[in-house]
Amino acid sequence: MTEPLLSVRDLSVAFHQGGEVSLAVDKVSFDIMPGEVMALVGESGSGKSVTANSVLKLLPYPAASHPSGQILFDGKDMLKASEPELRHVRGDDITMIFQEPMTSLNPLHSIEQQIAEILELHKGITGQQARARILELLNQVGIREPEKRLKAFPHELSGGQRQRVMIAMALANRPKLLIADEPTTALDVTIQVQVLGLLRELCNRLDMAMLFITHDMGVIAQLADRVSVMYAGRIVETAGVEALFGRPRHHYTRGLMDCMPSRNSGARRLPTIAGQPPAPGTVGAGCVFASRCAAVRETCRTAAPPRAEVSRGHDVLCAFPLDGGEPR
Predict the structure, then answer these.
(1) Is pLDDT above 90 for 35?
(2) ∠280-298-235 over CA atoms, to 5°?
(3) Whole-angstrom Cα distance, residue 55 to residue 14?
(4) How far is CA 270 from CA 71, 159, 300, in A?
(5) Strand-by-strand arrangement of the 307-311 sheet
(6) Which residues of 54-66 are buried (b: 16+ CB within 10 A; e: fewer)?
(7) Which of 163, 201, 286, 320 could form a disulfide with 301 if both were Cys (CB 3.0 to 4.6 A apart)?
(8) Phi, psi dihedrals of residue 228, rounded to the nearest 5°
(9) Taking the model in full, what pTM does it have?
(10) CA atoms of 181 and 174, how far apart (whole Å)
(11) 3-state class of 327 per DSSP?
(12) How far apart are CA 285 and CA 63, in angstroms?
């Protein structure tokens, strides 16, 4: 049996400020297999980006800490890795694409300079060899006339082109795992579809795994193999994408799907999930979703829900999951 490329086990993340401690992520566990696209989905503040940044230890330590957990990449615990070991992994075996490329690209350096720096630092490639690799990468991510883009600065490119440059930079060293933190949020719908299709194609072609962070259920349907739904710092449901969309078992997952617009929505008002997610550190002993769940029972407010495997590869954190007998 193939071992997971990335295995996150009971990961917790706490933030310390002014003598107070807030738990932003609470005992999160998931695996990503080689070549698999895994999505983390949930509302803003659910802990998705904090979880993703923990993989490469990009949080503001020592204000951030990990009360529990392991992050095993190729069998090595990233939380125990030294800074030199992390520098070797970052940008080489694991790379990351951020939400807004204008804050990630250097406005004073050309596209060629920025990609060349990565190649020189990690692979020792310079000169004409580096230039040839850069052109190959720009072609790979669908940038037209790449020779003309080499000397361009970020502000001279469109939003979609900048995001493609970020993808090219992430692919420069042929990583095993790509972490994409809401990379299409700032793009219009047409360009978003193009970028998502490109990411899926590259994962298939390069046999690269991806952890994709998003709040958009529609994005997941066209991109992911498996999905973990996060709420208030916890994973409340994990399943293959077809199983999740066909028969969601957690009430929060169902609520997210009901909020999605469809071609048949017409001009009607879309439903919403009542209430607001709890602030970090304010979750009580019961279910984290109890205050917003339409099917809440008294025991949900007082007892922690069990995690149950409702079908193979499909588990849910709920004492009273939705009936799996009726498709959505």
Answers:
(1) yes
(2) 40
(3) 15
(4) 39, 29, 27
(5) 94-97, 177-181, 209-214, 37-41, 226-231, 234-240, 314-317, 307-311
(6) bbbbbbeeeebeb
(7) 286
(8) -115, 125
(9) 0.91
(10) 19
(11) coil
(12) 25
